[in-house]
Design brief:
There is one protein chain. By secondary structure, the protein is an alpha+beta fold. It folds into 3 domains: 108 residues, Acyl-CoA dehydrogenase/oxidase, N-terminal domain (Butyryl-Coa Dehydrogenase, subunit A, domain 1, Orthogonal Bundle), CATH 1.10.540; 113 residues, Butyryl-CoA Dehydrogenase, subunit A, domain 2, CATH 2.40.110; 143 residues, Butyryl-CoA Dehydrogenase, subunit A, domain 3 (Up-down Bundle). The protein contains 11 helices and 10 strands. Strands 1-4-5-8 form a 4-stranded mixed β-sheet. Strands 2-3-7-6 form a 4-stranded antiparallel β-sheet, with no helix packed on it. α7 runs antiparallel to α8, α7 packs parallel to α9 and α9 packs antiparallel against α10. The longest helix has 37 residues. Bound molecules: flavin-adenine dinucleotide (FAD). Flavin-adenine dinucleotide binds next to β1, β3 and α11. Flavin-adenine dinucleotide (FAD) binds next to β1, β3 and α11.
Length: 378
Amino acid sequence: MSDLSPEQKDLQKLAFEFARDVVRPKAPHHDETGEWPADILKQGWERGLMNIHVPEDCGGLGLGTFEGTLMDEEIGWGCTGIATAMTANSLAQVPVIVAGSDAQKKKWLGRFSEAPLLCSYAVTEPGAGSDVAGIKTTALKKGDKYLCNGSKMWITGAGHADWFFVLAKTDPNAGHKGMTGFIVDAKLPGITIGKKENNMGQRCSDTRGVTFEDVEIPADCLLGNEGEGFKIAMRAFDHTRPLVAAAAVGLGRAALEHAVSYAKERKAFGGPISQFQGISFMISDMATKVEAGRLLVHKSAREIDAGRRNTLYAAMAKRFAADSCMEIATDAVQVFGGNGFNKEYPVEKLMRDAKIMQIYEGTSQIQRVIIARELFAK
Ligand SMILES: Cc1cc2nc3c(=O)[nH]c(=O)nc-3n(C[C@H](O)[C@H](O)[C@H](O)COP(=O)(O)OP(=O)(O)OC[C@H]3O[C@@H](n4cnc5c(N)ncnc54)[C@H](O)[C@@H]3O)c2cc1C
C-alpha cells in the first residue's frame, strides 16, 4: 500500500519476511503433527512481532489496530494456524488495555516484554458460545476474594497461558448485567487445563477446555467494576475482529497466489487451464474478494484507531473476510482439480484452515446479527 508511513511499511516488510522465511517452511509440519510452534513464537517475539498493542509505558510498542492488521495479514498469509497461536494474546490483552487500571496494566501487560508469554481469552463455555449472556461460570464475592467455579471451552492458547481473561457471573440473576471480567493467574489452585483438541484446521493452535473449581481470584484482579464484564468482552471484539479478518485476507491471498501459478502451468485440452473462462473468472472473483476484504479490514481498523465506534465495520470486515476466505480456499482447491484434494499440494490445508474463520470471534451469522442491529439502531 502506498499510503503507509515508513514505519508501517517496515512493520509490514518485517512480518512478510518472517512469514516467508520462518512460518511458511514449517507450516506443513505443524499442520501434520499439530505440534505447538514454540520456536516460531519465540522468534516472532524476538523480532518484536508479538504484543505490538501493549502500551509503551508497559514496555510494549503501543501500536494501533491498523498496524496489527498489516502484520496479521502477512502472518496469516504464512499460516493461519501459527498466526492464531501467535496473535491470540491480543484478544486477552485488549480487555486489560481498555478497562484495566494503571497498576493492572503494569502488572499483567508489562511481563510480555520480558519473555514470550501467552494469555488467553476465556469466555466460551460448553453450553454458551454465540449466546455469551448464557454463560454459567460464577465468581462470587467472599471477603477480599471471588470464588470462581465453572468450565470454559475452546480456549485458544490455554495450555500455554500465563493468565486468562475470564468472564464470570458475579450476580447470576442479572443476565449480562451480572457479568464481570477478571484477570486470572493460570497458576492459581483449582484450575484444570483440558487436553488439546484435535481440530480440522489450524491444527497447531492450542485449544482446550479450562475448569475452575473454587478458584480464589484476588479482588484486585477484577477489571473495571462488577457488572461491566459483558461490555468489556464485547468492546474487545471491536479491536480484535479487524485483526482476525486481516489473517483471513492473508489466507485468501495465499490461496489466490497458488491458484494463479497453478492455472498458468497446468495444461488441459492443449493449453494452460488459465485460458478457460470457467477458471479465469473464478480467479478474478478470488482476487476481487481479497482486495475488497482488505479495504473493509483497513476501514474498520482506522475507525477504531481514530477513536470512533467501529462495531459495524468490525463485524462487516470479519463477516466478509471470513466468508471470502472460505470461498477463495474452496475455489483454489477446484482450480487444482484432483491435486487440490491431496496433501502434497498446499491448498487443501488452506481450505481446512479457512473454516474456523467463519466460527471463532463470533460466527458469520452473529456478525450479520450485529450488522443488522447497528443499522436498525440508527
Ligand atoms: C478453534 C477454536 C478456537 C476458539 N478460541 C476461543 C477463545 O480463545 N476464547 C473463547 O472464549 N472462545 C473461543 N472459541 C469459541 C468460539 O468463539 C465459539 O465456538 C463461537 O462463538 C460459536 O459458539 P458455539 O460453538 O457455541 O456455537 P453456537 O453458538 O452453538 O452456534 C451454533 C450455530 O448456530 C448459529 N447461531 C447461534 N446463534 C444465532 C443467532 N442468534 N442467529 C443466527 N444464527 C445463530 C451459529 O452461527 C452457528 O452456526 C473458539 C472456537 C474454536 C472452534
